[in-house]
Specification:
alpha/beta; about 260 residues; 3-stranded antiparallel sheet
């Protein structure tokens, strides 16, 4: 068993670490802005007047990407539905709006492919992964990204030795905030959520951690850096997290003791 120490807070009897990808392991801001602006341009060509609505739906304002916006934290299906809703507001019939959102996102993907090549590791990631494995912890990637993108990311950065399981969204697990998402990831490596700590950069990660032993919010994956209030879900009851949590700006702030 391992104790995870973070700014004085102790998470004891830990056997697994659940790591978000985008914004926690991967620097994705530049890639996502390019993807979003490309999709908005493509949709504007088909639906004149929709450009600003699409950007707003994706969480892109004045050229800046919101780390809590749809494109930064949503799954692919959620992104399609969000941009389809914006297209519908612009006057497009709903069925056509979904088709347009789906095809333009696919085309934007092709323009910005492969994603893994444009999402470098954030500082200190590989060293942190090495420490996790040296402590004999199970390490599971949990992401709202597609399974294929998780696998390509690991291959691109030669991280195969550090991960015991990769859990992306799929038809079976369409969103990582669903209770069964983390349960399925745990089942794959023979642990329970209560034996693990979630590390992520978004409210969706904090929600996913509700059944876990604890949550560590990583604030160093965006510029300007996030604050704890960017992650704590303001829609939760009493504005308080439902799990023990701490926040860091660097992975070196997380200590492991056996």
């Amino acid at each position: 068993m391992v104790t995870v120490l973070c700014n004085g807070k102790r998470f004891s009897n830990i056997e697994a670490i659940f790591l978000d990808k985008d914004g926690t392991l991967a620097d994705v801001a530049t890639y996502l802005k390019q993807l979003g602006t490309t999709q908005a341009t493509l949709m504007e060509q088909l639906l004149p007047g929709s450009h600003e609505l699409i950007l707003k739906a994706l969480g892109i304002h004045a050229g800046d990407l919101s780390p809590s916006g749809l494109l930064a934290v949503g799954s692919r299906q959620e992104t399609i539905l969000g941009t389809a809703a914006a297209a519908a507001i612009a006057g497009c019939p709903w069925i056509s709006a979904v088709d347009v959102a789906t095809t333009t996102l696919a085309t934007a993907d092709q323009h910005c492919s492969p994603k893994a090549a444009y999402t470098p590791l954030l500082p200190g990631v590989k060293q942190f992964l090495q420490r996790l494995k040296q402590a004999n912890l199970k390490v599971i990637m949990v992401s709202a990204d597609a399974q294929e993108n998780l696998e390509q990311f690991v291959q691109q950065h030669q991280l195969q030795p550090y991960f015991d399981h990769l859990q992306g969204v799929s038809q079976r697990h369409p969103t990582k905030t669903a209770p069964e998402f983390l349960t399925a990831a745990c089942h794959a490596v023979g642990v329970t959520p209560r034996q693990g700590v979630v590390i992520g950069d978004a409210a969706s990660d904090l929600r996913m951690a509700a059944s876990a032993r604890g949550f560590i919010g990583y604030l160093g994956g965006w510029q300007p850096r996030l604050s704890a209030t960017d992650i704590i879900d303001s829609n939760s009851s009493n504005h308080q997290p439902s799990v023990d949590c701490e926040f860091v700006t660097e992975f070196s702030q997380i200590a492991l003791t056996v």
